[in-house]
Design a protein that fits this description.
single chain, alpha+beta, Chemotaxis protein chec, Surface presentation of antigens (SPOA), 6-stranded antiparallel beta sheet, 28% strand
Length: 277
């Protein structure tokens, strides 16, 4: 795994920790169960729509800024589910209620990251402009059990993005991006061990390999409809499960609801934090 991939995982873990805390605050405030998922195609914030922004500033063992961006209509809907304000407009009362909601989730957020980064404060304020510093962007779709959905976009500033995952040139190791050491003496270093609790929701691509075969360029060019390519594996040999090109398990091919699947019969290399380095 490359240094850039590791950096993306750490920054995604940061945004997931914040959105988890925000969903918990929304669930507590509204009485409905809120959760989030990666924004699907078509759920992105529409170009040209009216937007509202909230800037959050971190200070202490973790420093920097990030910006939350919502469509004005989505922000009105969220506020209407928590306080008795009309959902078809967004005024000063709506803005204050949204800011209060976001602030209510920051304590959970700070607690979730304390072990890795030590103690830091979070200040939230209404912002009047879109983010000009967009070192890292993530977007989620928040939804409740009544079917209400809202897209929320997060922009990490460059200083915060670097604090979460310094570039290799500044980490002193060209192969692996290390984590900036927390200033707090009570904080634990995370350069040697990633906290898997923060990256459990990060999606990884796995591949099933039934076999392989080397072909000459001539054989590739001769492929036509109906051609048969013989693989290097017998039909009774196990199928391999690969993560980032590494075989981690073997098993039997099965069909689940019309889709191919794998019944694991042997785990060769359990996934651990060391595999993400």
């Amino acid at each position: 795994m490359t240094a850039n991939q590791i950096a993306d995982i750490k920054r995604q873990a940061f945004s997931n920790a914040f959105f988890n805390a925000l969903m918990e605050a929304m669930t507590e405030a509204s009485g409905s169960s809120w959760s989030f998922s990666p924004a699907a195609e078509g759920e992105s914030i529409a170009e040209g729509s009216e937007l509202v922004w909230t800037k959050l500033t971190l200070d202490g063992s973790l420093q920097g800024e990030f910006l939350l961006e919502l469509e004005r209509a989505a922000a009105s809907m969220l506020v209407s589910k928590i306080v008795r304000l009309p959902a078809d407009e967004f005024g000063e009362e709506h803005s204050a209620a949204l800011l209060k909601l976001i602030k209510s989730g920051t304590d959970r957020f700070r607690f979730a990251l304390k072990q890795e980064f030590g103690s830091f404060t979070v200040k939230a304020a209404v912002a009047s402009d879109a983010a000009s510093d967009r070192a890292y962007v993530s977007q989620i779709a928040a939804s409740d059990d009544a079917g209400n959905r809202a897209a929320i976009r997060m922009y990490l500033g460059s200083s915060l993005a670097e604090a979460l995952a310094p570039p290799p040139s500044k980490a002193g190791n060209p192969a692996v991006a290390s984590v900036k050491q927390p200033k707090s003496a009570a904080a634990k270093a995370i350069a040697d061990q990633l906290n898997l609790n923060l990256v459990m929701d990060v999606e990884l691509n796995v591949t099933l390999r039934f076999g392989q075969r080397q072909l000459t360029l001539r054989e590739v060019l001769d492929l036509t409809t109906g051609s048969v390519v013989e693989l290097d594996r017998q039909v009774d040999e196990p199928v391999e499960l690969l993560l980032d090109g590494v075989v981690i398990a073997k098993g039997e091919a099965v069909v689940v609801d019309g889709n191919y699947g794998l019944r694991v019969t042997e785990v060769l290399q359990p996934v651990s934090a060391t595999m993400l380095k």
